[in-house]
Write a structure and sequence with these properties.
The complex is a heterodimer of chains A (222) and B (161). Chain A has 222 residues and is of the alpha/beta class. Chain A has two domains: 2-121, 3-Layer(aba) Sandwich (Rossmann fold), CATH 3.40.50; 127-219, Winged helix-like DNA-binding domain superfamily/Winged helix DNA-binding domain (Arc Repressor Mutant, subunit A, Orthogonal Bundle). Chain A contains ten helices and five strands; from the N terminus they run E-H-E-H-E-H-E-H-E-H-H-H-H-H-H. In chain A, helix 3 (58-68) links the parallel strand 3 and strand 4 (73-78). In chain A, helix 7 (156-166) crosses helix 9 and helix 7 packs across helix 10. Chain A is elongated, with a radius of gyration of 25 Å. Chain A starts with a strand and ends in a 14-residue tail after the last helix. Chain B has 161 residues and is of the alpha/beta class. Chain B has a single domain (4-160), classed as Response regulator (Rossmann fold, 3-Layer(aba) Sandwich). Chain B is 50% helix and 16% strand. Chain B has six helices and five strands. A five-stranded parallel beta sheet of chain B has the order 2-1-3-4-5, with helices on both faces. In chain B, helix 3 links the parallel strand 3 (71-75) and strand 4. In chain B, helix 2 crosses helix 3 (76-93) and helix 3 runs parallel beside helix 4 (109-117). The N and C termini of chain B lie far apart (41 Å). Classes of the chains: A alpha/beta (222), B alpha/beta (161). Chains A and B meet through helix 6 of A and helix 4 and helix 6 of B.
Chain lengths: 222, 161
């Protein structure tokens, strides 16, 4: 199912002409409330959304709509917008962006591409995407390195127990698995907490899994 | 049109020469030949001794740093070796050189994404027509990236989740 959303009947007619050949049922909405309702009711595979739809409220509004049915692939149709604005829309998770006055035949190509998992983004914006990927990777590598440095301070037994905590095992399970007493497990864990400067097993588990660095209280709620 | 310098580090000498000759004939492109140190290419054999590879990577970095090609085509197999050490070093030490990966059908998307995450600016099937190499050179030289829309979709998934 494809949902078309615009307050302009002319746009809706032209878009409908473009996607008609895709042999998917087409629904139209002319206001935001209707879009919200249809997203929940018909769960469309694709939503073609007019960026100028009244009360949409930019990236925040689009983000809110996407939460109503995360499976729906959203394509924004708009007038010319700056690279920054367009990139901010992609960061909400939309899968494509193109001009509202796009030719119907071309619109069909866009929808088909997005349905197949492609991202319809201008090449001029693609470096934003790659830069984010590089930054995320560098951050992850730093965390991995920091974790690895810290875990290297543990004894073999402490490392073994920390890893089992990371796998979600209780002290009792760890004691049984390693054939030691629960009290010994607790003693080892106390030493692990001290060496890694963490207060509880949840934080230890996150460190072992590499999703946070020690002394990084911002990464976990209390 | 501003001259773009291109170097090709394909491990297959025949293929490399063919591509060099093809790009050399294009206006505005200057091909730098023999960019890899003599007989010292980074092995794509994962069992190679790490020390040998580190030395080879250092040699490549030194040579690239001296020749400063704008675009460098590198085998994906070479670049994934040693946890993407070559790409990471090129990205850090030769930022003016933009790397485009040469792949084949066996290349896995995840490997390509990891290579892009470590600094490559695009990827291209090494059997592609020379026209696509030319396009890739132009696009990457302009600061954009050269990957399929499908790959862009996968990168976006990675960035958002």
């Amino acid at each position: 199912m494809i949902l078309l959303a615009s307050s302009s009947q002319d746009d809706l007619s032209r878009w409908e002409q473009g996607v008609r050949g895709l042999l998917a049922p087409i629904f139209c909405s002319t206001n935001l409330d209707s879009v919200r309702g249809e997203l929940v009711r018909i769960k469309p595979q694709v939503l073609l959304l007019d960026h100028d739809l009244p009360k949409l409220d930019g990236p925040n509004g689009i983000s809110g709509l996407m939460k109503l049915n995360p499976e729906t692939k959203v394509i924004i149709l708009s007038r010319i917008m700056s690279d920054e604005v367009e990139w901010s829309l992609f960061r909400t998770g939309i899968r494509g962006c193109c001009r509202g006055d796009i030719e119907p035949e071309q619109l069909k190509n866009v929808v088909e591409a997005v349905q197949q998992g492609e991202l319809w983004i201008r090449r001029a914006l693609s470096w934003h995407l790659l830069n984010e990927l590089v930054m995320i990777t560098q951050e992850k590598n730093k965390i991995k390195q920091a974790v690895s440095d810290l875990l290297a301070n543990l004894t073999r037994r402490e490392y073994e127990i920390a890893t089992l905590v990371g796998n979600g095992e209780s002290n009792k399970q760890i004691a049984r698995r390693l054939d030691i007493t629960e009290r010994t497990v607790k003693a080892h864990l106390t030493e692990v907490f001290r060496k890694l400067d963490v207060a509880d097993r949840l934080k230890l588990a996150l460190i072992v899994k590499g999703s946070m660095t020690p002394r990084d209280p911002t990464r976990i709620g209390h | 049109m501003q001259m773009v310098t291109v170097a090709i580090a394909d491990t297959d000498p025949g293929r490399r020469t063919r591509l060099e000759q093809s790009l050399q004939s294009e206006e505005g492109i200057k091909v730098l030949t023999n960019v890899m140190p003599n007989g010292n290419e980074i092995s794509s054999n994962r069992r190679s001794k790490p020390r040998t590879n580190i030395t080879a990577i250092e040699d490549v970095i030194t040579r690239i740093g001296r020749l400063k090609p704008r675009i460098l085509f590198v085998d994906l197999d070479q670049s994934i070796n040693g946890d993407f050490a070559l790409l990471e070093a090129l990205h850090r030490k030769c930022p003016e050189t933009l790397v485009v990966l040469l792949t084949d059908k066996s290349a896995k998307d995840e490997q390509i994404i990891q290579a892009l995450a470590n600094g490559a600016r695009g990827c291209l099937n090494r059997e592609a027509a020379s026209l696509y190499f030319l396009k890739a050179v132009r696009v990457v030289d302009q600061g954009e990236i050269w990957v399929t829309r499908k790959m862009l979709g996968k990168i976006m998934d990675k960035v958002l989740h």
